């Protein structure tokens, strides 16, 4: 099916809220992770929300995030066209002050949604910067949702560490959404960016429920998002989704699965790749003067990347089943 737009993503979120399930939005730092996620989503018959951040786009574009967005966006589009589930792309944590990259995201028409982050600013500044982003999307008539964040989440995100956190206030959330016109709101309920242990988190799922109720009481039908879900237990994820949160962001888990799968593969196959003791490690000569030679069938990147894709697909199936999105694709 075609790579999906913001209006279709809005329908997917509305359907999830009505049916009582959610999406685990999955960050992509490398294209084999993206491919594995699409394969897993197809197996689970779940629509898929991919996410890229500015630093990942810059890495893909040799330092230029605009080039990287084109590369990753084209990959997502082509994989989506070949998939039998919906594939969406959110650009995650775009710094609101980075007007150049924000403008490039909107003008490209690539994302299904963008997450504009001014949560570290005082309330009024957060409102103003988010409102300008919404106006930019509207001015370009872009079929693109805008996600914003109110509250502070601890941990490392985009190379910036936040050591303090505060929970989202429901009444502030009402004012924020009303004044900015954002399409989704990320709330702070005690999760953390990066590697965390669920038992060490001061989770407040009740805050998400209170924010959702306050918005509804004021006639604001705004889906809620929670960032930093990699360290949560299954029960904690179910608890959050029961509050009406329709999107949980996951990033660190996939990075770990990529590294762990590659590490396990090379440990198991070291003797097929690294010369034994007593053999010169002559990469230039490719070991022409020795009886030993590496095994190309093992060291080809396709072997380890194939394992990585399969592992990421397995994880995607698991998280789709946990979030309830498995078997719920609106395009099948």
Automatic annotation (TrEMBL):
The record's Pfam families line, in alphabetical order, gives: F_bP_aldolase (PF01116)
Q: Which InterPro entries does the UniProt entry name for this protein?
A: Aldolase_TIM, Class_II_FBP_aldolase, FBA_II, Fbpase2
Instruction: Tell me which Gene3D superfamilies the record gives.
Output: Aldolase class I (3.20.20.70)
Q: Name one GO molecular function term.
A: aldehyde-lyase activity
Q: One GO BP annotation here? A: carbohydrate metabolic process
PANTHER family (alphabetical): D-TAGATOSE-1,6-BISPHOSPHATE ALDOLASE, D-TAGATOSE-1,6-BISPHOSPHATE ALDOLASE SUBUNIT GATY-RELATED
Record protein name field: Fructose-bisphosphate aldolase
The species this protein belongs to is Salinigranum rubrum
**What lineage does the source organism belong to?**
Archaea, Methanobacteriati, Methanobacteriota, Stenosarchaea group, Halobacteria
């Amino acid at each position: 099916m075609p790579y999906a737009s913001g209006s279709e993503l809005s329908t997917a979120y509305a359907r999830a809220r009505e049916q009582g399930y959610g999406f685990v939005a999955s960050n992509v730092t490398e294209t084999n992770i993206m491919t594995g996620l699409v394969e897993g989503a197809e197996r689970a018959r779940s629509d898929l929300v991919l996410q890229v951040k500015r630093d990942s786009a810059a890495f893909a574009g040799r330092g230029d995030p605009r080039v990287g967005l084109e590369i990753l966006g084209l990959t997502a589009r082509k994989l989506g066209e070949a998939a039998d589930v919906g594939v969406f792309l959110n650009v995650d944590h775009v710094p609101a002050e980075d007007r150049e990259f924000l403008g490039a995201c909107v003008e490209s028409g690539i994302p299904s949604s963008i997450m504009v982050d001014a949560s570290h600013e005082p309330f009024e500044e957060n409102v103003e910067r988010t409102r300008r982003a919404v106006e930019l999307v509207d001015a370009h008539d872009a079929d693109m949702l805008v996600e914003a964040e109110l509250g502070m989440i601890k941990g490392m995100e985009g190379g910036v560490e936040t050591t303090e956190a505060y929970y989202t206030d429901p009444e502030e959330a009402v004012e924020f959404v009303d004044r900015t016109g954002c399409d989704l709101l990320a709330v702070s309920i005690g999760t953390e960016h990066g590697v965390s242990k669920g038992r060490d988190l001061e989770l407040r799922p009740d805050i998400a429920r209170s924010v959702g109720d306050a918005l509804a009481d004021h006639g604001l039908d705004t889906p809620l998002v929670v960032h930093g879900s990699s360290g949560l237990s299954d029960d904690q994820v179910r608890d959050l989704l029961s509050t009406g949160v329709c999107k949980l962001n996951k990033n660190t888990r996939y990075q770990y699965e990529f590294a762990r799968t590659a590490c396990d593969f090379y440990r198991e196959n070291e003797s097929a790749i690294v010369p034994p003791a007593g053999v010169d490690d002559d990469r230039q000569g490719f070991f022409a003067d020795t009886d030993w030679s590496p095994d190309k069938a093992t060291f080809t990147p396709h072997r380890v990347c194939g394992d990585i894709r399969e592992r990421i697909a397995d994880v995607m199936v698991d998280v789709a089943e946990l979030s309830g999105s498995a078997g719920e694709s609106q395009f099948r």
